[in-house]
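To: structure desk
From: M.T.
Subject: fold request, one chain
Message: Could you run this one when you get a chance? Sequence is below, nothing fancy, just the single chain.
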Amino acid sequence: MSNMKVLPVLESEIELCCPPLNERPLTAEEAERTAVMFKALGDPVRLRLFSSVASHEGGEACVCDISDVGVSQPTVSHHLKKLKEAGLLSSERRGTWVYYRVEPTVLAAMGALLTKAASA
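Reply: Done. Structure tokens follow.
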């Protein structure tokens, strides 16, 4: 028997940075915010780290569990810092280790950005 509870994602809690790309042209400010996110994910190591955190059991991962991406530990820390600065990850220090998580709203906002706008 599991103690885990599946909670629904409430659409009203999703803070979108921008409308879907095919809804209207992005403003300069929206394009700037979106580019930061895509630039952070444009590096293969960062994309692997983001995917490792996002898919990790329990929705968060200790840095000790996600460091096997083919680069040194200082490089992993650098890439995690870039993902955090882009607003894609959040972190919490627990004793010696740092735990990273992808907020559900980030994944939902990214999906909404790339999803075709609903027709009325």
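Reply (cont.): Confidence is low (pLDDT under 50) at residues 4-14. Let me know if you need anything else for the meeting.
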